[in-house]
């Protein structure tokens, strides 16, 4: 989920760190993994210094570049790739958008359509149609239906957007089953994919993976950085977060694997947390 209160120092330090990792891995070629990646977006618009919000100008430049390079793939493509049935050019990516905010509908959708880019929307079902004071409103059922009609794949981001790693297993089961059932019933479609709320190492584990498997999910995505490959568990796949306020050169590095090394930073922070 998003946090709007980004202080300027933290903003610039984080941006410098992301760009440093991307440029270093470009220069060294060391940490880059060959393969396909899944990009994570959240909101679109003009919130300044909000890493969760990408401007529509930047998003359009990114989608236009993906279309020119012919790098955009669909969720079905990713499934075929994981099954070893399909190969893609190095740097192919799937676009995903988390949290079900309305700017996906009025902002991103026309751009996705214009450039024929496939995308997946991960929806926290209890938040559908809700308005909060500190961020934009969530999609309504009608808007989600329109996204589905436009070819956007609708998938689950749990029911109430809680960390699955921090609640009882019975509650995990309810989060994953209830969200899928409500989406399927209201929209008349089949939900096969899931994105873990928050998606850090603390937010999923072997038990949550087993529950997703029993609940008929085929693919699940974390927020851990890296490329995906057929040797990975399809219910704990990494993604790469696209942040607001980054130039097209940074986006091109992300797509090419420039932030794969960020997973070592994620892991380091995880270990620090465990020690507390
Ligand atoms: Zn989320």
Q: Under the CATH scheme, which class?
A: Alpha Beta
| Range of strand content | 5-15%
Q: Which cofactors or ions or other ligands sit in this model?
A: zinc ion
H/E series, N to C? HEEEHHEHEHEHEHEEHH
Largest sheet: 5 strands, parallel
Structure description:
It is built from nine helices and nine strands. It has a single domain (8-275), classed as Glycoside hydrolase/deacetylase (TIM Barrel, Alpha-Beta Barrel). By secondary structure, it is an alpha/beta fold. Helix 2 (56-69) runs parallel beside helix 4. The relative contact order is 0.18. The strands form three sheets. It has a five-stranded parallel β-sheet. A two-stranded parallel ribbon has the order 2-3. A two-stranded parallel sheet has the order 7-8. 41% of the residues lie in helices and 12% in strands. It starts with 7 loop residues before the first helix and ends with a helix. Strand 5 (119-123), helix 5 (141-149) and strand 6 form a beta-alpha-beta unit. It binds zinc ion. Zinc ion (ZN) is lined by residues 1, 98-99, 157, 161, 197.
